[in-house]
Amino acid sequence: MFRETISTYLLSSLIVLFLPDVQAAAPICANSIPDMTWSGTKNITFRFQALTFTDPDWDYLTYTASQIDGGPLPSWLTFNAATRTFSGYPPVGTSKWQLRVIANDGTGNFAECDFALNIVTPTPLRQTGQTTSYATGDDGNLKKGIMRSSEDFVDKGDGSIADEATGLVWMKNADCWGVLPWADALTKIRDLNTGATTCDGYTGTDRDWRLPNRFELQSLIDYSRRNPALPASHPFSGVQSNIYWSATTYAGNTVNAWNVIIDIGRVYNDSKTSSYYVWPVRGGQ
Hints:
By secondary structure, this protein is an alpha+beta fold. It folds into 2 domains: 28-121, Sandwich (Immunoglobulin-like); 150-283, Mannose-Binding Protein A, Chain A (Roll), CATH 3.10.100. The chain is built from 4 helices and 18 strands. The strands form 6 sheets. It has a 4-stranded mixed β-sheet with strand order 2-9-8-5, with no helix packed on it. A hairpin with a 4-residue loop joins strand 11 and strand 12 (168-171). The longest helix has 17 residues, at 2-18. The termini are far apart.
């Protein structure tokens, strides 16, 4: 009995000793992620298939996503690894993103699948909001353009509002810092992006805020209303029926910059040393 036990032990030891060092097999990108073209103006959501990646060892796979060059996803696009879902509000205009999904098996082995995401979102011309007609052929009679909808504005829950009609994201608080000269307004927004200053109510982490250009600021205006001339269902807070700076310099006199009077929607220009309100925006093309 003792001799059999020793023999069995020695045989087992020899088997273990001479077993080859089997390395874990790497996962495989078995089914490519097709290139995608998005031509809408609404929220984009898509997911890749569960069998895009396979693993010979049946290891559990975890996923990450980035641009092909290793850079992070564009700020408007998020990736949920648990559901394999990409989502976000694409910018207005045309752009092309080369993206990569990496599947990791937990042993250091991984596989990559690359695909292209093409964004072709039109810059919409919207109705002014005027519905009363004062003469045949006037704006209130024809109502040309895309109609504003109460569903255009989406509260992102972090102190910012997405305008799905334009692809822009506005600060929900329209009175972050009171009135400022034009140069100070630009500086304040740079400080917001570096974390040197904050805007009351904003809890997000985006760092690409900027001063809106003249047309972007005017895109908020509803000319059927006044005091302020914004859509009746707008979700913003702290809106001042006053003058807001744009980032656009007046070509006729470059010491001036364009502004929009939110009270009535009038577009004007004034000296950059004047002090007006600041409404940060992000997104766009």
